[in-house]
Every structure is written in structure tokens, then in C-alpha cells.
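Recall from the previous lesson that a structure prediction takes nothing but the amino acid sequence as input. Here we apply that procedure to SURF1-like protein from Nocardioides jiangsuensis. The sequence below is the only information supplied.
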Amino acid sequence: MTFLLSRRWILFFLTVVLLAFLAFRLGEWQFHRLEDRERTNAVVERNLAAEPAPVGSVLAVGEPVDPADEWRRVTATGEYVEDETVVVRYQTREGQSGVDVVTPLRTASGAALLVDRGWVATGNVGTTRPDVPAAPTGTVTVVGWVRVDATGDSTAVADRSTRAVSSEAIGPTLPFPVYGGFVDLERETPPAAQPLARTETPDLGEGPHFFYGLQWWFFAALAVFGFFYLAWDERRKARRPESEPEDQAVRAAN
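The prediction returns the following C-alpha cells.
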């Protein structure tokens, strides 16, 4: 087994240890992601099953949404401010291009709730503002799922349009205060004359993390097994009698 002390085998051993450790850690990372997904799903399931709560008990003006409240249902009553509608561009469904329509619902407190009323297909390619169905007029009661504000450059508002919804970006463009976050509309009373396509609830599957984790751990085990197999094979070759190749050649010639 002295060959294991050679420079080649020492470098080979260190490489295998590094690869096995890396694969093991990647497997752990996937299992941690699975645990995070399970915790998130549990929160979403609880929120989806809860009864709608008054908007003021969940959201606050100028305050960010607590992540634990995302997908919780809230209810609010007020009047849509149609002139302040913001369209969310580049939203596709089943291969169709379209926009989401976000209209502030001004409540009796004076604060407005940003309501993503849904999606509508358009032929718009981003150069002009599309015509969208009108919101219900008069006093409207809405029930919607709480959503956390988007972040990044995509939230910038120009010409009453954006690429992602954020109360922090839309709020300053409005002449009244707004609640933090926004809601995806579930239902409204009275309903709109032309209802929009509602937002789908999130996928509560666990994703591929479990199988990815097993895959990485398999790679780690394979690297270790491969090293010991090659070491065993090298030892077997080293212990083979030197005359054996010659004897085999003589037998083959006969």
C-alpha cells in the first residue's frame, strides 16, 4: 500500500475529499431549502384557510407587510379611484401577453388599498398604454390576498405603468396615503361589469429539493467508493506475480 504515499495518489485523495465534501454540502443545502419550503408552505396554508380580516388589522399605512401575513385574506370597503389605475406590463398567461390592473381602493379612513384586480389579455407590446376594463363604481367591498411589495428597478412607475407592484413606488404618485403592500383580488361586491382573470394561489408543492439532495449525497458516496475501488485495483495489480504476464503470453502462443 506504499503507493498511497506517492504524490499522485496523495493529490488524488485530496481531490476526492474535496469533491465529496462539496457534494455533501450541496446536498445539505438542498435539504435546508426543502425545510424552508415546508415552513413557507405551512404559513401559506394557514393563511389561505383563515377567515378574511379587516385590512387595518393586518396592513398599516407606510409599513411593510409582515412576511408571515402574505397570502392572508383581508377585506376592505371603499371606492375605487379609477383615474389612478396602474397597469403592470409584460404579464403572460398560457402564452398570451397582457397586463395586470392595479386600482387604489380609497377607504373611509382616507387611506387607499392597492388592489390588483386581475389580468387581461392585450395586444399591447409596451409602446402605448392599453385600454383596460373599468372597476366597479360606488362603494365596493373587496376580499383579497395580501402580497408583499416587489423590490428592484422593475417597480419604477412611469405614465401610470410599472413592471412589478410596490406600494413604496406607487404610493408617492398618489394624492392620498396607501397601505403597505397590496392585495390580489379574490372577489368584490358589486362585481365588475367585465371581470378580470384572478390571480392563482401559490403552488404548495415541495419542489425537487429532496431528490436533488439525495443526488448530491449519491455523488459524494460515489466519489469515496471510486477512490477505494481504484486503490484496491492498484494494489491487486501490484501484487500480481511478475511472471504472470509472460506465462499468459506463452499460453496464448500455444
